[in-house]
Recover the amino acids of this structure.
């Protein structure tokens, strides 16, 4: 017989929904396929098809990965000097890395209570491209 406290969800959903309302931009609506092609500087030859990930959002939907055109536009906006011919390779790698990381998160969360709330969900993606962890900094210093 299981303990009643183990069956209760550990997350205060009322507090969680308040934070979700405040951070409404964390769940942008997926862009229509044609919207990327109108961005200046994005080659019209880049596909605008998007792939739906296996990563659940908090609103019972799945995250949608960027198309090649959107990825190109994002890199250009960040002054990364993208090449259209590279997008065919970069985007699948980007998606595979996210899927692999999500699998690791789910594995780590197994047995830690996330199952009682309907499963673990990703609230938002946050990149820190300019941040180097202390461990990474130390390894760079060692060469």
């Amino acid at each position: 017989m299981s303990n009643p406290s183990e069956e209760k969800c550990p997350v205060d959903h009322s507090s969680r929904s308040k934070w979700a309302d405040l951070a409404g931009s964390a769940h942008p609506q997926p862009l229509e396929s044609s919207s990327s092609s109108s961005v200046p500087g994005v080659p019209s030859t880049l596909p605008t098809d998007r792939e739906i990930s296996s990563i659940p959002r908090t609103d019972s939907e799945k995250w949608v990965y960027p198309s090649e055109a959107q990825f190109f536009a994002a890199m250009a906006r960040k002054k990364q000097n993208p090449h259209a011919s590279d997008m065919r390779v970069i985007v699948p790698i980007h998606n595979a890395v996210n899927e692999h990381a999500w699998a690791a998160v789910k594995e780590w969360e197994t047995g830690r209570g996330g199952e009682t709330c309907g499963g673990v969900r990703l609230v938002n993606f946050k990149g820190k491209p300019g941040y180097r962890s202390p461990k990474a900094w130390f390894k760079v210093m060692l060469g």
